[in-house]
Specification:
Length: about 230
């Protein structure tokens, strides 16, 4: 799911059992799922203590997918001067990367950020590229929905985020060897989850359901896990 540290998820019949200490949330979460989206890093730069906590409390095959800080995507808007921030963002997570416990880094562009292919090309050329580091980018302005954008992501081996919303269905694009999927609709029927499960069985993917404005997103997550075993 997108994040895990939500006190409102705790209680009788909810995700976290009553009486579970908040410090044990991650341990419990990791007993049910193999990955989490680090949405809190969008507002707060990551700390090494986060990496150490994941290593200590999660299995070696668990993945934390960090969401790039807003200073890069929303304030600097991927201009060249943001690259030192990208590097500072990744540094505290190095232990996770070394152990293969870091999922793709999510770069989510603002809704009012229209297509600037030359700028994107420059940014994707400047960010670190190595076998242990994967990237995914989410476009929220319609002007990015072009073959030129797809070609550019394929050139840099960046996953195009498949965002599934009430306004539009997700599109799976093969821009690299893995997929990043965000299920953001306010409701999913069992038929829709079965359709997603069929797609997920044949691809290397990280999938995250929404965490806000829905009653119990873990029901969808649990069902997807069940259907893809």
């Amino acid at each position: 799911m997108s994040g895990y540290s939500y006190p409102e998820w705790q209680g009788e019949g909810l995700f976290y059992p009553p009486g579970l200490a908040k410090s044990k949330y991650l341990t419990y979460y990791a007993s049910r799922y193999r990955t989490v989206e680090g949405v809190g890093m969008f507002k707060r730069m990551p700390a090494e203590s986060t990496a150490l906590k994941v290593i200590k409390e999660c299995s070696p095959d668990f993945h934390l997918s960090p969401k790039m800080n807003e200073r890069v995507t929303h304030f600097q808007r991927i201009k060249p001067e943001c690259i030192p921030i990208v590097e500072a963002f990744l540094e505290p997570l190095a232990l996770l990367e070394e152990r293969g416990m870091m999922g793709p880094v999510l770069i989510q562009l603002p809704p009012n950020f229209s297509a600037k292919l030359e700028l994107l090309d420059e940014f994707l050329s400047a960010i670190p590229h190595r076998p242990t580091l994967r990237w995914a980018i989410e476009f929220r302005h319609s002007s990015w929905q072009t073959a030129e954008t797809e070609s550019l992501l394929r050139k840099h081996s960046i996953a195009w985020v498949a965002d599934d919303t009430d306004e539009h269905d997700a599109i799976l694009r093969d821009t690299t060897d893995h997929h990043y999927i965000r299920l953001r609709k306010t409701d999913y029927s069992d038929k829709q989850l079965r359709e997603w499960a069929k797609k997920l069985k044949d691809i290397d993917s990280h999938v995250y359901v929404r965490h806000t404005d829905v009653q119990a997103p873990w029901i969808w997550a649990d069902r997807l896990v069940e259907l893809t075993l």
